[in-house]
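Replying to the earlier thread about multi-chain prediction with a worked example.

Input:
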Amino acid sequence: MSKKIRRSQPLLPGETGRFAAIVSAVILFLAVTPILTMIVMSFSGSANLDFPPSSYSLQWYKAAWQTFVSPDESDVLSLGKAMTTSLMVACLTMIFATLIAVPASYALTRCEFRGKAFAMQLMSLPLVFPMVVLGLALLLVFDSLPFHLSTSRLVIAHVILALPFVIKNCTASMMTIGSEVEEAAQMLGASPTRAIVDVVVPLMKSGILAGMLLAFIVSFNEFTVTYFLYNIDVMTVPIWMYSRTVSSLDPTVFSFAVLIVLIDFVLIWALEKLVGEGGVSF
Amino acid sequence: MQNPPITRQEDAAKLRRNRPFSATARAWLFLTPSMLFLAVLIVASLLVLRMSVGTKGAEWSGFSLDSYAQLFEPYYLKSLLLTLRLALISAVIAVVLAIPVGYTMARLKSPLIRRVFLAAVLLPLLVNLLLQSYGWLVILGPAGMLNQALKGMGLITRPIMMLYNQNGVLMGLVQTAFPLAVLPIASAMRGISRSYEEAAATLGASRFQVFRQVILPMSLPGIITGATLVFAYNASSFVVPLLLGGRRVPMLAVMVHDQIAPLMNWPAASAAGVVLIITTLAIMTLSEFVTGRRRRMLEASQ
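Result:
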């Protein structure tokens, strides 16, 4: 087998052999196994968690749909409401994170200024900051405020979490734009602000869009920090799912999960199309 | 988004005269909105620090180091050691698995396969950890996939317990943090020009030798970054030990939450949180130091 390959297609240095490719494919398959398992389980025809399921049916999807259209009394909060909150928080996070990240990445790529290294370090802090401590800390802050915040405290938390992703993508795409286009615009009479808004921002559209998508995905899937900050009126979908399965795991959750994975997959695929060759910047 | 006042009022001549000041001021003005959000993070961490030296009942006014002393009790010390050990082992395993994947991804030619690979890397990172833990529950359960497979191969006769112990948690930790190891390694390996490999091969190195003596040393900064990210991420992992460990694998992050939710002991939770922050920052600084030196050495040798 290997001889035949070598004869037909000699491997040049710098090309991965078939062996390495297969090993990587297997490892990556293992990495997504939990997600795939969940997708298969959602089509299970039996009521237990045996894998592979003994029969296949759409019963859990039907049950999930029932929960969605007619929530029973035992549920503290309907899925519809949780879904609305989730989408609203994710959209607001996306908008705010982008609005603040674009000027920040302009400063980080175009300007030389005192404290730049410090600012860069600070920007990536939320990536490595322990999420549990962030949840705890924000809870302390919001509880000591004299006024009450509900949805907005989730948005603030999610913007902090999404910020490094958006900034990385915006700076990466701004790096590819030479400063001469801006200078040309200014020479033709545009004010510095106008040069940025009308020339630089449209050119870095794909980076901004990628950042927006990432912000949405991060917010939509965030659990840990939200778990500290939610209250009974403001619940996101992950929290709703956890509160439902905290005592026992029922397979209707798998059908919801498949829906969420599907949304995530579409967003990630779009993200890759936008970001293209270089890969997503993290 | 933009701040019109400064640009409109600014006189070009004035701008030129004291440029260093205005450039810095302008840059910081652009940074202000994001800095406001990060300031929330900083203030919040300072509050945690203050809370950790408070006393229960008088959180804001009291001062005592009891909460830190408490961390040296055997139960907490064990939890701390368990957290560090699991984070370390998971970082090693994740990096070992990530090296071939990163290398393959860096050298893939087909755009479609590259996108599929990248999607497979990004999914575990971005999809809600809760959902992935549900998947693990199905895989690791007594009648789950892994037990059935092992039984089918005749390796075991009775299902072995993998859920609610350290092995299950470790598997979950490796899988969820795996992308954090792959991404920096792949980007480091993409940065290595193929001419190095060609040169080594011309000089008679075998493919394995090229990989071991050229690729690995040159991508070491990426490998260290990956290992650090996995370690830091898993040291404060919350969802995985919560769902896959039940209450039997008390990692530090779960303890932080337990101190608040049933116990309402804010100082103890904060002290554990401070330990988490210090661990994370220490390991990041160390890695920054090592990779920085390594990178300078590589640059000097080129």
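The CA atoms of residues 94 and 212 of chain A lie 5 Å apart.

Feel free to reuse this layout for your own posts.
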